[in-house]
Amino acid sequence: MFKLMQISLKYKEIVIALTLILVVAGANIILRLPLDAFPDTTPVMVHVNSVASELSPVEIEEQILRPLERALMTTSGLTEIRTLGRFGFGQVILIFHDSVSLMDARQAVMEKLAGLELEEGIAPPQIGPPATGMGEVFHYTLKSETLNLKDLLDLQQYVLEPELASVPGVAEVNAWGGKLRRIEILVDLLKIEEYQITLSEIFIAIRDHAGASGGGGIEFSGEYHLVQGDTRYRKIEDIENTVIRSHQGLPVLLKDIANVVDGHNLRRGAVSQNGKGEVLLGLVFMGFGENGRSVSMATKKRLLETKELLPASVETEIIYSRQDIVDSVLETAGKNLIWGALLVVLILFLFLKDIRAGLIVAFSIPFSLLFAVCGMWAFAIPGTLMSLGAIDFGLVVDSSVILVENVSSRLQKAKTYYEKSKIVLSACLEMRQATLFGEMILIVAYLPIVFLSGSEGKLFRPMAYAVMLALAGSFVWSVFVVPVLCAIFLQKNQIKHKPFLMRCMEMIFVRMLSSVLRFRGVVLGFVALLGLAACYLASGLGARFLPKLEEHSIVLATVRLPGIALNEALHQAEDLEKFLLERFPKEILSVTTRIGTAELATDPMGLEQADVFLKLFPPEKWERVQNQTQLQNLISIELQSFLGTKFVMTQPIEMRMNEMDAGIRSDLGIMIYGNDLDQLARRAEEVASSVALLPGAKDVTPEKITGGPYVIVRGIPEKMGRYGFTGKDILNLVESIGGYQVGKMFVDEKRYPIAVRFANKDRNDPEKLSDLILVNSNGVRVRLSQIASISMEAGPVLITREKARRRVVVQVNIAHQDLVGFVEDTKKHLDQNYVWNQEIHYKLGGQYQHYLSARVSVLISILFVLVLIFFLLQLSTERISDSTAIMTGAPFAAIGGVFALYWFEIPFSVSAGIGFVIVCGVSMLNGLVLVSTVNQRRKKNLRASIILASRERLRPVLMTAMVAFFGFIPMVFSTGIGAEIQRPLALVVVGGVFSDTLLTLFVLPCLLLLRKTIGPHPTITKP
After folding, report:
1. CB atoms < 10 A from the CB of 988, how many?
2. Which of 197, 459, 676, 937 is most buried, judging by how many CB atoms fall within 10 Å of its CB?
3. Phi, psi of 930 (to 5 degrees)
4. 133 touches 659 (CB < 8 A)
5. What CA–CA distance (Å, rounded) separates 265 from 856?
6. How much is the pTM?
């Protein structure tokens, strides 16, 4: 260390030049640093989707989900597999260990799928886009007063999707709502009976007619001409003129037995907005590892550019952009940083009373920040609320404060410039050992955070990296730059007297310390009582995984009765939208409802499910409430008038994180496992009814898995054989009720499916199905009721599986903040009131599971930090008694942290736990400085040595404590988006620094007085 400082003082110009170069480089990099709201905490996840439009959930489970489970269960690195089956659709969700990269996981899944064979007629499963659960970064709507929903979806698919998909970082562009155009052949039952034509003949005629082929080439007139055959359909008239067969010597055209119309596919989803009818919703997903803010900004720019390609009557509206929440969160972080820096600088000037000395310390703030930014850019760490926003400038300036304060005090004795340089070097070295170990202790305090796993690791690791980089910058500044600037700018005899405030404080402090040392037994007893009180308060704080983040946006996840028709769901959605806008005109800006499933079913829901997105005005415009929690409570009360609809209130990012990580959308999920669907459904209803009565339970909603209305057509084998019909004949008829795809029509670059189905008059009434006529190849005509039974039954609407067993979830939100206490009450209630066995059992999921994992990790981290810190202290002090005395800073700080959480009524969380880890390191620095000074100012009288050293170190101890204290104060009182995540951490540090400073100044001297001897004066080794 002596060598480094000596070289710095010798080559001052080079040090200044290198410092300026780093500052310029950092200022350039900070403009290019990727920015985001929060780190992506979702696990490594791969979706596998399979579409079989004619299969029920039970058939989806049997023919798709179980084979996929068996094939994928042995995938390397797989930790969890969940499956979901709805009518016509199956999805498998595979979650991998964090050590597996997303690309490796996708490759492993694709290799497994390559050798999988499903039942005939089922399309091969498709792997989902390479995006994470947080990849949904941009939403926009399309609407028009002149174009219909089919035209809008055409514009989305053939104009907007290609343009937006080409934006760098975009992984997928999806559509929700609209009508997917298809050409429908509406068969007239009377006509096909008259001409004795079967459905199979229609299918074959369409398939055989349309196609394209190559015929090589021919040489003609010295040129080589390619031969191409093309009988593909280009317009509806081409389809109408298709020859089915000859009847009584004349060709029977398709238009003779059917109407060909411009129709649409079976709709599985829709979007309405502000109670004014349907719109088309576009969704943009970013790729894995991309920056959400950058992708959403680029997407917005491209969308505005492509408006010129759309008809003038089409209106596009951006309803969600990740850029907005990122900018809001970064604004919160930026305000905290600026106010923290200003408060730190103010404290420096108040205590130093020297502009030059204050500036030398203050300039360590931008230097350390720019140093950290350079490191974050080099290691691909984005700037987020948890990285940039968690840097405390009070910690950054600690070393510089101690060094500059000591130089200022010693410089009064300088007589010449040469002597001044020696005094600067000597003064810096005198405190450098203590500050060096202090910096190492701070870095050690953050080091265990790097090794956290799971969601807590992904959330807090960027913070640890950023702070350690800033501390590294602080180290560089204090070792290389501070001595140089002190030697250049601080003048000898510049400060003849300490500030008046400091002299008064020293006088009062010495008198108080003398009294405390006289009654040290009473003081130590009082501190012990404080510790016991803190333990008692800590036991009643309650706990949760993370504080609930207020996103200033609300999502109502609604569940209606199974089997609801899409038009009825839309009607109810419009009523709800109008109701909310009328009740909350100053709070809710717009309401958008997503019903069912998008075109690419990344988030498969039934028509009975809908997500209602409430976009809010800025909070300062609200009239009925003061904050989002009050708004949500008031909305819940108002929604009680909507009978028959269950609501689960959440927020966009919160919902996505819960859903992707745990498969639920609420704070807590009671997951019930079994094999009998009816038994599972009954137990879920019973559990939901009883749990809803527990204190704190809110939005208790059981998953609807049964009760869907079915029309079942079952062939009667003996009757089918008597009339000469096969099962295929019945299946063709049933498929034609919804639409049996037989080909495609080509219009420029557009491709429209062609489907055969019955007209609405023959298909919308279940009783008329029995009168449908079947004609076989021999001309035999029968009614469907003659060879099959038709019944209306209730069946499953959803089948979810986990660990190869069926599962149903009861979703529960929690009204108060103590998640862990509520979970324990729920578990006790379930165990006492229900019988659980191998046939039916339960598990609690959601944030609670993350808390259990994180709690162990944080406790291990704290123990690890304390052991490492004790080791470092032992290296520094070389006395177990001194190291033990300094280590008391950890419980001193913990007392203040617990009292701060109790005062603000904030439960323990991972965020607060990280605060305790940090404050363990922070609390040691002042103790180390004080003990080091006591040993250096040795006297025969131990009491006099302690008082002298304590008085001498009062200013740096108070300065380091106050800059750390006020550096976190803006985070405590911040109200912007994201402040909830930072507040518990900041509260623990602020409370811990406050209590540790008081106890270090008064209790640590009492502990030092207990020893009988003073340690040896540490020597400075020179070359």
Report:
1. 29
2. 459
3. -65, -45
4. yes
5. 52
6. 0.77
